[in-house]
Amino acid sequence: MSIILRILFVLVGSITALFVARDSLNFDIIQTFVAILLVTALLLGGSFWSLWRKT
Does residue 20 contact residue 2 with C-beta atoms inside 8 Å? Predict the structure, then answer.
């Protein structure tokens, strides 16, 4: 589980760095927000995929 989270946070850091400078004061807050959005999107995608496979 920790390997998955580390890969996720590397991805989130890269995505956030595209939009916000790393030395910005809000970088950590925006990185956390992007991580929450990404996890939510993955969970929604998994649940819709599960519903699609049942039908």
Answer: no
Q: How far apart (Å, rounded) are the C-alpha atoms in residues 48 and 17?
A: 29
For residue 48, which of 40, 37, 14 has the smallest C-alpha distance? Answer: 40
**For 15-54, how does the pLDDT look when each residue is reduced to its tens digit (9 = 90+)?**
999 999 989 999 999 999 999 999 999 999 999 998 888 7
How many other C-beta atoms lie within 10 A of the C-beta of residue 38?
15
Q: What is the token pair recorded at 32?
A: 């956390």
Distance CA(24)–CA(46), nearest Å, equals: 33
pTM: 0.78
d(CA 41, CA 12): 13
